[in-house]
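Below is a filled-in request sheet from our internal design queue. Each sheet records the structural input a requester submitted and the sequence that came back. We keep these sheets so that new team members can see what a complete request looks like end to end.

REQUESTER: design group, bay 2
PRIORITY: normal
MODE: inverse folding
CHAIN LENGTH: 203
BACKBONE (tokenized):
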């Protein structure tokens, strides 16, 4: 019975992800997701009491997909610069491909629902662990020296995320989603910043 319940939950998350990725949070209804699955709305609400709770679960699942893919690419990289590029490129590509799913970070910036806001600290920690993997790659290849990996990773990640906000401000676009061109510009400057940062850690 538990396996069957887990399978239904996964189906709901996958169907909701398709809806949210295509239409975004605001334009998706619980009724539409239930219809896609041929489920009753009552069954959907049994697993997820409201749309924000479902959206938070889908968003967390999407971040885990990013983590899994970037972890694999970082592990396959030959040096620290390749590992950092793998982290930045994979992360931004998946966000860009599923942009409507990630839109809340722009459209809901000042009115974040509690269910979504509650998961953000754990998502940030997952990204710090990704940057730690990049730095450990540099330690393994003896390219860099790092005394405090987690603090160093946190400084680098905050710098990279802060750059994104600065770029959107430059475009006078702080509260609107980036365009495809702005995504590419953000990635290019983030890679340059990461390279400067990594060069400062070189042996």
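RETURNED SEQUENCE:
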């Amino acid at each position: 019975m538990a396996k069957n319940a887990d399978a239904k939950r996964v189906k709901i998350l996958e169907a909701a992800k398709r809806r949210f990725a295509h239409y975004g949070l605001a334009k998706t209804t619980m009724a539409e997701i239930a219809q896609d699955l041929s489920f009753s709305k009552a069954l959907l609400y049994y697993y997820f009491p409201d749309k924000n709770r479902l959206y938070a679960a889908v968003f967390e699942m999407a971040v885990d997909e990013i983590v899994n893919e970037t972890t694999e690419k970082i592990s396959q990289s030959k040096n620290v610069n390749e590992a950092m590029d793998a982290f930045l490129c994979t992360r931004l590509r998946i966000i860009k491909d599923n942009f409507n799913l990630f839109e809340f970070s722009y459209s809901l910036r000042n009115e974040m629902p509690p269910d979504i806001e509650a998961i953000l600290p754990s998502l940030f920690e997952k990204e710090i662990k990704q940057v730690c993997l990049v730095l450990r790659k540099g330690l393994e290849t003896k390219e860099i020296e790092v005394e405090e990996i987690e603090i160093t990773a946190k400084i680098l990640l905050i710098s990279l995320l802060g750059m994104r906000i600065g770029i959107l401000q430059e475009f006078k676009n702080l509260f609107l989603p980036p365009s495809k061109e702005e995504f590419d510009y953000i990635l290019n400057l983030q890679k340059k910043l990461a390279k400067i940062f990594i060069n400062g850690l070189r042996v």
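SHEET NOTES:
- The chain is about 75% helix and 0% strand.
- The CA atoms of residues 59 and 101 lie 7 Å apart.
FILED BY: M.R.
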